[in-house]
Amino acid sequence: AKQWQGVLREYSQQLGVTEASTVVTLGEGGTPLIESRPLSAMVDGRVFVKFEGLNPTGSFKDRGMTVAVSRAVERGAKAIACASTGNTSAAAAAYAAAAGIQAVVLVPEGRISMGKLAQSVVHGARIVQIRGNFDDCLEISKELAEHYPVHLVNSVNDDRIEGQKTASFEIVDVLGDAPDIHCIPVGNAGNITAYWRGYSEAESSGMATKRPRMLGFQAAGAAPIVRGAVVRDPDTVATAIRIGNPASWQGALDARDQSGGWIGAIEDADILRAQRLLASSTGVFVEPASAISVAGLLERHAAGEIPAGSTIALTVTGHGLKDAQYGLRQDDGTDATPEAADADVAQVAQMLGLA
Ligand code: F0G
Fold first, then answer.
1. What is the per-residue pLDDT for 332?
2. 63, 94, 129, 220: most buried, per Cβ within 10 A?
3. Is 218 touching ligand 1 by the criterion CB < 6 Å?
């Protein structure tokens, strides 16, 4: 059987890939678009979840990283660098390993999940924890790339946006057209920029007849675009989007304004509730930052902004196992501790109320 070839080969025409191009791939993309009947019922529409946690390193970052690393290698780079809240660094580390080059990753000290840090370690990245936040890390990586022989692979590098736009193509391919509404988390704002580009190209090439309204969501404690001002000390449980000065700020505004969309802020408690709702109702376990797509959809529905009968795509950006401790947390805020029994079937049956 023929397996999925990764986004550079599957979308070679849209990405300008030829036989002569360097392709560093782990088979990213081709992620499932899962219809959620419970969410559909809640908003009186059809809700489809684009599960990006099923990419090779567990997040959507792989789509951009295959392009960025392939082009870096093509230009002779021996090292790549990025700032990250954890997922970009995991992807950079893995694709650098695949390419046989060095990754240098700068992360905010003590503020990335253990799963993501472990990925960078195991793939052999050079990791520096910066005593500061993501925005400080990004400034340093940009300057490193400007003055030293390392190739920047943050989404300020347009190759990342090019790769990430392929998720829109996949959604259009599966649905047969663009959805009416697309919900997406916003951190550094590269992904909403990429999706909007993808949908725009799908429309202009005739793959789709329309473009969706783009609804982007930031965590309330890290919502510079909603507030219209840089947030100096961003804070949220959704560490992946704990960003106060997004690099692609203008791209997010363009997606919102050109699509008649919205960028809103969501409280941490609603993010965590949405994470459990998606996992328990639909079978999809995502990290907190990703669950903001679900929380945001429900908030917009409550505000009367989701017309009945709409087709809605939700991007859930990263796997729940990245940040597994939130999976254990229950509605009352305590961690689940499963009951224990002896190795005795009668006792287990009684405990379960079966006997
Ligand atoms: N969801 C997850 C799981 C992320 O890791 C990120 C960004 C986003 C959403 C937001 O996407 O930045 O394109 O608006 N993570 C970056 C990182 C910042 O370093 O991994 P965005």
1. 84
2. 63
3. no
